[in-house]
Amino acid sequence: MAKKNQLELLIRSLTPAELKRFTFYTKTYASDKSYLQLFKEIRNNTHKRPEKYNNKYAQNRKYLYRTILESLIVKNKDKSPEAEVLFLIKSARFLINKQLPNQAYSVINRALQIVAKQEMIGFHLELIALEKEVRLYTNPKSYRSDAEIIAEEKRLIGMQSQLLTLKLIYNHILTYKKQYGYIDEILWNRLKNEVEEMGMPQSESECLTVKARYYYYFNNTLLNWIRHKHKTAYDFSKNFLQINTTSLTRIEYLNGVLEHSSSAVCLGKPLEVLDILTMVKQRHEKGSFGSYDNIALKIFYYRSNYELMSYVFMGEKENVAAKLKEIELGLQKWGEKIPLEMKLILASVLKLGYVAVKDYRKAAKQIALLVNNYKSGLRLDAYEDGLISNLIYIFVKDDSDYLETFALKAYKHFLKHENKDNLDVDFKIKTAKLFLEYARGRYSHNELLHKFRYLLENKMRYFDNRFSEIDYPYLIWVNSLILKKDLLTTAAEMAKERLNL
């Protein structure tokens, strides 16, 4: 049946209850009322088509047809592709129930164009099921064949299976990151074997969709990040800035960009970090990522952590002080909504910021938060950062008795993970032992500083760009004491040589 008669058929199929809903809808929600005369004429069989079927008349008919469906199908104000597809699916079901299969097929085809472009595989499979249902009632030659439908369905099921596998792998790697932060080679090899057995693609070329490539990039970024392979992680994560966002949700895009900011931080690229987070802030203020609290909290967390760290690394005193105040206000606002894992990571950067502005009381409070939450089972790396930071803090306070007690505690903890092939564990064991021996009178104040700097430089030379975002704050601190300069002044001088500015 010609499409030009679809509007008339739909209007004639309306029941009295449906007519009431349409009348109420047009009075309450619809903005353009010029089509109502057309509706009345068709209802009263008095409508005469114009001799010239012009574009304005055609658009008026389309708008009326759409408005009738909107009045009968629950539809919110969401203008996203997902909302549009849901509306079209409901419309197709409605038209099937009204025994208007040809019109339902037309709606299904419009929806199929959207889901194909947006890679909405679940909706795509649902629409194929509807298409099959329509074919039970009508099957003109112009419709595609059963063989074509089956081939597409098989292809979609393969895409869906791969995407679900990649999401499963993503959550598996994320669990490791939440529990350990960084991991040693033994754990990393175990994790790598696990994800390969789960079905991790060997290369980007094996990915069947854009969204699959997104999770392929994400999984490899995380997999390399937690093993300190930051250059490789960065090479994967930078794809988030170029990826076609059409098929991604806005939250997926946000997560990818924020993960790239992590990669940039870990390579000592503070200016790139600030550019990324400024872009995120601006887009969030424009509503690009929605207004949900969990999204706003996540952006607050990343900006607080990485912007404060960047300002300290570059030695920007005014920005450090301003950012600390901003974070404090944010902590008051969010309160108990902040998960413990986030609090621990924020504590790591806050104690650095407070030391930078010489607010040692607040710094001590953040260090205590790190040290006292070992039993939470979250972020072992944050706990161990707290142990070393506390050694430094007690050393500065010149409390030899407490330093000996605490250094022995830290030394015993690190010995539990002793592995000469693990650079990070070896460094932490030697650091705790150094402070312990200093407390017992083996080294002088100046000797400890130079030996600690040697341990740091020796460790960091193995990392990409001779940089480690966890160890770099210790290096700034020890250099400031050796040179007898302000911490932020020392940071600004070091930045010219050590950072990628």
Provide the descriptors you would attach to this structure in a database record:
mainly alpha, 501 residues, 23 helices, elongated
Describe this structure in words.
The chain has 501 residues and is mainly alpha-helical. Helices cover 72% and strands 0% of the residues. It is built from 23 helices and no strands. The protein has helices at 6-13, 16-28, 36-43, 55-72, 81-97, 101-118, 121-135, 146-180, 185-198, 210-225, 230-237, 250-266, 270-285, 293-314, 317-334, 340-356, 360-371, 380-397, 400-415, 423-439, 445-460, 472-483, 487-498. The longest helix has 35 residues, at 146-180.
Fold topology:
Blueprint: H1 6-13, H2 16-28, H3 36-43, H4 55-72, H5 81-97, H6 101-118, H7 121-135, H8 146-180, H9 185-198, H10 210-225, H11 230-237, H12 250-266, H13 270-285, H14 293-314, H15 317-334, H16 340-356, H17 360-371, H18 380-397, H19 400-415, H20 423-439, H21 445-460, H22 472-483, H23 487-498
Helix pairs in contact: 1-4, 2-4, 5-6, 5-7, 6-7, 7-8, 8-10, 10-11, 10-12, 11-12, 12-13, 12-14, 13-14, 14-15, 14-16, 15-16, 16-17, 17-18, 18-19, 18-20, 19-20, 20-21, 21-22, 22-23
